[in-house]
Amino acid sequence: MSTQAILVADLAADDALEPAKLSAVDRLVEQIRDLVRDRKLVIGDPLPTERELGEVFQAGRNTVREALQILKAYGIVEVRPKIGAVLSDRHEDAVRKLFAFQHDISPASFLDVQGYRKIIEVGIGDHLILHTTPADLDHLDAVNARLLTQASVEEAARHDFAFHEALVTLAGNRTLLTNYRLLQPVITQIMRVGKADRPVQTDTHQAHAEIIKALRDRDRVAYTYLLSRHLEYGLQFVVTDPGKGGAQS
User: Fold this and answer.
1) Taking 60 as the threshold, does the pLDDT of residue 171 lie above it?
2) How far is CA 37 from the centre of its chain?
3) Which residues contact 135 (CB under 8 A, 6 or more apart)?
4) Within 50-152, where are the H helices?
5) What is 21-88's CATH topology?
């Protein structure tokens, strides 16, 4: 059996086992996250009551409470007297403080974050090469195209993150995607500072397009090289003087 055939068999086995690994509590955590996103709730907005969550998602009281405890531990929700569970900003604040992103990005912090991203985004390469469809790659092209129409730094950074989020989404692992999204405030800060100093939308768009082409060509080596180069490129713009420089992606 070839190496590729073995890899396909292993991935198929992993996919078959995945539903069994997801407990009722974990499933409810994901459902609450989806509810927050679908209803476009913002910081300070109340979540449905425990009883309402149980009714909506057909979950028992203990399952609902455990799921809320997990979200509370992540800093995503907090319980307020007479109000109940509300969306919290403690996680975003904690992440920003952890990496000391105030006015500048240190080389050490940049390497930490981009190193984490490389582990994730390069690591899913084998799965993407084997499983992405032409429709998946067309979607990546569409997400990438939005970069060229953004006039503001904030919007450009948001759409830059959206491309990489879409890439991770194609791995088909919700736990991986959830953890990646937890670092969104840090990752977008890197993208924001980079775009504040020079027009990089075209450069970033081109880098993304090359990564998509490598996936279309089923070229694992090119994908790894291009993505690694893309994530490392911004280090040359990271400086210690506040208000200067930043990263491309």
Assistant:
1) yes
2) 14
3) none
4) 50-57, 61-73, 90-98, 107-123, 125-131, 134-145
5) Arc Repressor Mutant, subunit A (1.10.10)
